[in-house]
Amino acid sequence: MTVHCPFCAHEDTRVVDSRLADDGESVRRRRECPACGQRFNTYERADLAFPMVVKADGRREPYSQEKLLLGLRRALSKRPVATEQMDAALRRIEKQIRTHPEREIPARKIGDLVMAALRDLDPVAYVRFASVYRRFEDLRAFSEEIEALMGPAPQGKKDASS
Fold first, then answer.
1. What SS3 class is residue 53?
2. What's the pTM value of the predicted model, to 2 decimals?
3. Where are the domains of the chain?
4. Most exposed residue of 19, 108, 135, 161, measured as fewest CB within 10 angstroms of its CB?
């Protein structure tokens, strides 16, 4: 494969090193230009088709990584979650979407995958996303979601007020 140098536009570069990246999802190649001597990285990944997304009203649209990333970023805004953690969650969600057995996937299923990823990353981001995704109408809905997130109270401990 011919890769042009991004610095001097020389027609061919050589591969200096190759290794797996993104948890094995892509190959990182370190390249060097024989003309100018500059080094740079390229990433190679399989171009796999995503299923069509079926919206709640029945419309179908192509999968959009931008939409998914925007939703994650909004939920995780100003939260102590590293960009690398968000990127890893995005890759896991996309892998689940790509391996969906049908040629179409309900938008609701994608929302559920995002909810599961956010639950593992950050509880506040999870509740933020859930409030929009599940269209919370009042404080009781928030309260119920937070209680479900926190799980049942530990058994066997007596309340200090008893």
1. strand
2. 0.62
3. 14-45, 52-149
4. 161
